[in-house]
Amino acid sequence: MTQQILLRVVNATKYYYENKQQNKFKSLFKLKHLDKNIVLKNVTVHLYRGEVLGIIGDHESGKEMISKLMIKEVAPNLGKVTNKEQTFLADVTHKANDHQTLNELVIRTLSLSGVKLEDISTIQKQILSFAKLTDKGIKTCKEINETEYAQLLVSIAKYMRPTVAIFTNIIQYLDESFQKKFNEFLNEQKEYDRAAVLIDDHLHSIEKMSNYLIWLTYGQVRKEGTVNEVLGAYRDYQMKYNQIQDKNQKELYDLKWKIDKQELPVARGEGYKRMRKYQYGRIPKSIEKTILYAITFIIGAVFAAFFMFIGVGSSPTDKDVATKQVITTNSEPKYIDKSAYVLSLKHDTLLTPSSKGNKVKIPQYSFLDVTGENQSNYRLEVDNKAYISKKNNLYYFNPAGLYEDVDWSELEDYVDGSYLNYIDFYNSFMHQDHKKVSETINADKSNRFNEQMEGQNVHMVFNSDNELTGFTFDIKDKQKLIKKFNISSDTWVVKSKDGYMIADLVENKWIFIQL
Asked: PANTHER family in the record, alphabetically (predicted)?
């Protein structure tokens, strides 16, 4: 998997008016209260090249709307969607309104995807054969069953080879043998640096096929991260809900998220604000801008005519033009939103505040959230404040990366006893607040980001929310480790023990991170 983002949904909110007969003209000026049914609220999704992203949630989560936003079938009311890649959406629910024959659907899809006209007939036969529908080409999509339709969509995706393939509620209709074919297709997407999105309730398959997961609750992102981490939290949530017998208690379950969904957000920058006031009698900003631009244009035209009359405003010199071009060319690109992490492998890296404030010096092996990047810098978040740092100061770590799974038993021989002998005790403090951890474990020297345990060669790593997220400790028998796993780089990352083991072979250190 690469760091390139193929598709992004940023701070997207989608709602519909509950009363379709409301006066649209009045609604522009907010002179009338308009009840809205909010489907998604402030949802951000990034899809990386070489990634299979899973999206889960119950029937009220709004997860099906995500696919419509991704293919730009609908536009968000707030936020933005960026997708310039060839994208194929496979959704079994489309079958009910699909009056095309199978042959027509295949030919139309191939034509739109840029397949040469002379190749379409051959590929069409291959698609129907792969889908086990060779003798049903003249049937309409409505006439075949859901399983056959799902097989057809998977087959089209396989031979179409889209850069982005989105599958909504399709796995449940595939039998075991066809799920293997589907899994092979997903592996091809990853291998050839394309990508796929799985939006489904079939958790067992999602678990096997995805390498990153997003859980939606009432139209909001409840949790995202590694598959094991998110699925563990989701299953625990479902188990507690299913244990409730009383209907009224079930209605009150997760009440905070239900209420929060009804508050309509506005587009956010550094912070997160909601529209709690000014809902009536105020002209929208879009109309305010239009009026402002019109007035500015009229005033500008008057001044331009005046300056031309007195000889001011002559054509710029070549030097002026060259200067403007240099400024434009050398300007730093805007930050692209993303969600990942970085480690400071160097000592005493400086973070510069993105607005006013003091620089922050972070020690080696600090672990920080990435919220954006441009060509030279990362934008980071620490304690709800934004900072900037040069990329070459930090090691990029993406939990959606295709890191190798290595059983902990294979790594134990290469872990120093200072951590290994007390591993269960240390790990019991994972994800606890810094202050609470300090009540039990003493540090040689207090530090916000990384503290050495008193009398031990083990450091505690605290994340951007000031919670314990990992430890650093010595590598034992480094050369044997390198030989056993055929490591050729200075930094080696694997998945293990419900987290990530990162070997800094230059400093002879392990960094264990559990998200």
From this structure: TEICHOIC ACIDS EXPORT ATP-BINDING PROTEIN TAGH (PTHR46743:SF2)
